[in-house]
Amino acid sequence: VAISHGxxxxxxxxxxxxxxxxxxxxxxxxxxxxxxxxxxxxxxxLLDDLLDTDIAAIEAELKAVNPPVAPAEPRxxxxxxx
Length: 82
Fold this sequence. Notes:
Shape: elongated
Radius of gyration: 35 Å
Strand content: under 5%
Structural class: mainly alpha
């Protein structure tokens, strides 16, 4: 493993006793987080209105690029003779 990482195996043998006998670092069991405040309801409705406006604008652009195709006249079934 050492050679695959470009390290001489003798160096690893020298490092092992140095780090093996040390106690592991103490990590906190609980990390406190800061809670973000909730959005006011008026801000939420403002965002909803903006989204609705954007969606309506995109739908209008799509209709301009791809106009609806008029339905074709129904085809008549060919008459088959037995």
